[in-house]
Amino acid sequence: GYQVAASSGKPDMRPYLENLGAKQILTREEVNDPSPKVLLKETWAGAVDNAGGDTLSYLLRSARIGASIALCGLVQGNQLSATVYPFILRGVNLLGIDSVNCPMTQRLEAWRRLAGPNKPRFLQEIGRTIAMDDLPRCLKEILAGGARGLYVVQLSG
Questions:
Q1: What is the pTM of this model?
Q2: Which of 9, 77, 126, 153 could bridge across to 53 with cysteines, CB 3.0–4.6 Å?
Q3: Could you read off the pLDDT of 123-149 as tens digits, one per residue?
Q4: What radius of gyration, in Å, describes the C-alpha atoms of the chain?
């Protein structure tokens, strides 16, 4: 029942994100409000943020009452400039995604669900398998900002 919005700093990502189901595509600048306002207009019912930094600050300040924001990356930085107002006045939840210390039982359950009833419709579009020999080339692509989606490294031939 929600409409998905996506953000990218790459203008050529629009068709890709729309194909994945995004109804609104925002630029990097549109998900960053450098104003000193402690709260912004309630906009988001929830968010998944892989940027952190200023984007996370914006999402917290513009989240609706009871919204949850899942933080799973720090591409933009590990600093958070925020107040407690989104938490105490709107009941916003900030959910940290722990991909390092997650117990194996939880990982296996997550993978079971993702392989079965919750399998992403566009898995082929968002991920690709690469050989170990391709890793240096792909890392250069990632560092140059030319990557998109998920890379799975195949460890054996």
A1: 0.80
A2: 77
A3: 777 778 899 999 999 888 888 877 888
A4: 17
State the Cα–Cα distance between residues 65 and 88, nearest whole angstrom.
10
CA distance 39 to 60: 8
Helical H segments across 7-151, by residue range: 14-19, 53-61, 85-89, 104-115, 123-126, 135-143
Backbone angles phi, psi at 140, to 5 degrees: -65, -40
C-alpha span between 23 and 20 (Å, rounded): 9
Say if residues 20 and 30 touch (Cβ distance below 8 Å).
no
At 136, the amino acid letter reads P
